[in-house]
Amino acid sequence: MNVNYRVLFILSFLLVGCSDTQPPAEPETSAVKVYDGGVGKVREIVADGNMAVIVHDEIPGFMTAMTMTFGLREDSVRSAIATGDSISFQVSTDGIDSWISQVRVIH
Questions:
Q1: Which of 12, 38, 74, 76 is most buried, judging by how many CB atoms fall within 10 Å of its CB?
Q2: pTM of the complete model
């Protein structure tokens, strides 16, 4: 009977070693979300023109009022704004980066 316990022990050890121990896949964060209602003032256009520092009010559902740097991915957005402009804008985010996806200069 002693031999049977050894065989069971060895089989148990082998089965545990063969089990699937990979962690579950992380969810994808590539979905882009768009938030309307951004209102603020362009404080600075960063030297390369691909980012702007915006002093903005609360963006409903996205963030509280603050000063933040946003990406400017589209040529139409980059050419539409200048330092000192008051703007209304739409923010897009993929969970990692945030950028201004639509903009309108307001007075």
A1: 38
A2: 0.70
